[in-house]
Amino acid sequence: MLNMQRLEIFVAVVEAGSFTGAAQTLGLTKAVVSFNIKQLEEKLGVSLLTRSTRQVAVTDAGERFYLRCLQLLRDAEQILDDVRSDHSGLSGILRITTTPEYGAKVVVPALSAFAALHPQLRIQHVSSSKNDDLVAGRFDVAIRLGQLADSTHHARLIDRFAIYPVASTEYLAAHHREAITSLAQLQEARWIAHSRLATPLSWQVLTPAGDNVLFRAANPPAIMADSAASLLAFARSGAGVALLPAWLVQEDIAAGALTRLLPDHRFSHTGHLRPLPQYPPRLREGADVYRLSAKPH
C-alpha cells in the first residue's frame, strides 16, 4: 500500500521544483524528502523525477502520477472533512480563484465573513484573469464572469449583474459631436475591449421597446487589455468606450468621471461558480455563504 505522506512529499517537490523548497514547505529536512522520494520510486519501479544540481524536473510518468496524486489527496481530505463536519466546524483548506476586480469588490468580503464563522478553515484566495486549470492549480472553486466554456466541471450561477457601455466626458467631446442616443451611433465608437473577446465585438441588447437585438461594433477594438481594471483605466483616460460591469463603474459614474451611454438599453452578463466534481462540505457551505452575500447589480 502506498504511503500517503510520501504522496504529499512528492506533490510538494513537484510544486516547489526542488527538494529544498519542498522540505521548507513541509517542515522536514532535505534528507527526509530525498529518502521518501527514493522509496516511492523504488515502490513504483519507475523514475518520477530527474535531478540536477539546482532543480528537479518531472518525467512523463511523474506528471501523470502527480495529477493522480492530486485527486487522491483531495479525495482523502474530503473523507476527513465529511467525518469532521458531522461533529465540528469546517476545517482544512478552501482554495479559490477569482478575477482580481470581482474578487476585491464582492468575493473577498464574503470570504472574510465566512472565515469568521469557521476559524479552523484556512482560505487561500488567488487573483487571476486567466482561466487556470483547476486540477493543476489545486483549486476548489473558480469564479469567472461570462459564459462557461465546455468543461467537465460542475457550474452554478451565483450572481447576475448589468454591464454598461461607458466613456469619459473628454472622449465624448473629442470624438462625438452629438450625444450618443442610439445603438447605430454606439456601433461607430472607438472601442476598448478585453483581449479574450472574439471580434467583431457583439452583444445581445434589450431595447426600450422590449426587442432583443444583436449589437455589433462597426470597427475592430482600438485598444485591447487583459483585465477589467485596465479597461477601466483606459476609459477614464478618454481612450474610448468600454463595456464594464455595473459594480465596477458605479462609483465613477456617480462621481462624473464616466458617463453611462444608452442607459435605457440593457446589456446582460453573468457570473459563474465552478467547483470541482464531488466537492467537500467546506466547499458546499462556502458556496452557499457567498451566494447569500451576492446581490444582483
UniProtKB/TrEMBL annotation:
Keyword Transcription attributed: yes
Stored InterPro entries: LysR-type_TF_proteobact-type, LysR_HTH_N, LysR_subst-bd, WH-like_DNA-bd_sf, WH_DNA-bd_sf
Signal peptide (UniProt feature, chain positions): none
SUPFAM superfamilies linked to this entry: Periplasmic binding protein-like II (SSF53850), Winged helix' DNA-binding domain (SSF46785)
Gene3D superfamilies: 3.40.190.290, Winged helix-like DNA-binding domain superfamily/Winged helix DNA-binding domain
Molecular functions per Gene Ontology: DNA-binding transcription factor activity; sequence-specific DNA binding
Gene Ontology biological-process entries: DNA-templated transcription
Residue ranges constituting the HTH lysR-type domain according to the UniProt record: 2-59
Keyword line: DNA-binding, Repressor, Transcription, Transcription regulation
Family label: Belongs to the LysR transcriptional regulatory family.
Protein name per UniProt: D-malate degradation protein R
Name of encoding gene: dmlR_15
